[in-house]
Amino acid sequence: MPQAKFASIESLRDSIGQQIVVSDWITVTQERIADFAEVTGDRQWIHLDRERAKKESPYGTTIAHGFMTLSLLSSLMQNAIEFQQSGRRAINYGLNRVRFPSAVRAGSRIRGRFALSDFKDLGEAFELVLSVTVECEGSDKPACIAEWVVRHYL
To answer: Would you tell me which CATH number, out of the four given (3.10.129.10, 3.40.50.920, 3.40.50.1240, 2.40.440.10), belongs to the domain 4-28+64-153?
Structure first.
C-alpha cells in the first residue's frame, strides 16, 4: 500500500528540496539476483557462486548487481507513492548521476528515499528530477545514490 498520496503530479511542485517519500523495505533474495543475472547475461561469480563468494569475496556472500539495485527504483517508487490523477503515462527519462557506494548482500533488505530536486512544466508533461538514496538495512553507507529524471505525460 502506498505510503504517500498526492492529488496529482503537479501537487509536488512545492516540494522541491524536500523528501517526498520513503519506500517500504524489500528483500533482495539470491533468486532475484540469479534471475537478474540470467536476463542481463551478467553471470559473474560474485553474484551467483555462494561458495566462492564466501571464500573469496570481501562481502562473505554473493551480492546484487549494481544495475539490479538501480533497476529496482521504479518498483520502490511505485509501491511508495500514489497519485489520484496521474496522467497518461510516466516515462523513465534517464539518470544524471549514479553511484554505488556499498554492496547489497544476498538476503539484505533495501528501501528508497526519494526527494524532489527539480520540477519542470514542459507543457505536455511534468519533468521530475528525483534525488534517490537506496539504503541497505544495517549498513551505514547507501547502496545507491542516483539523480533520476522521470516525465509524467498529461
So the answer is: 3.10.129.10
